[in-house]
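## retry 2 of 3
previous attempt timed out at serialization; input unchanged, resubmitting
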Amino acid sequence: MVRSSLTLKAAKTLVHAFVSSRLDYCNSLLYGIGDGLLTKLQTVPNAAARVVTGTRKFNHIIPVLRQLHWLPVRQRMTFKLAMITFKCLHGLAPSYLADVCTPVSSVVSRLSLPTAESANSGALVVPRTRTTIGRRDFAVAGPATWVAVFPWRNLRIFVECDFYTSQMLFMVAFAVV
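## retry succeeded, writing output
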């Protein structure tokens, strides 16, 4: 009943305010969960997309998500983690997060001193861990995601980083070529 009195823009705004914000709030806790739980979690944005667009229950949801330009939950978590890591590297995040993102250029190894090439690469140190829970820690997951998502790593402007990351993950999620 409420949906019929809302415009598409108003419905999207409400969904982002109530649904997407709750999913984003838990991204760091949910990073690395199994496919079974992720599939269950994906039903939440799917249902929200159906409400926003008026799509019926048995219609395919992927074209609807593509039309709304909403990333699936796994790619959304990766995107948010990469954005937090970007903020850590550029002084836009709290110090307790920024302290765990260590550039390779600041680490002196036993084999050699940091070079100009390593200083400009933007690569981060990914700590080793032996447990599954350890891999979900931001100190490990943030740098690992950063290294995987940004092969170029030389972006300086957050807006560009935000745009290119979401576009890349959108293409991966929906196999857009």
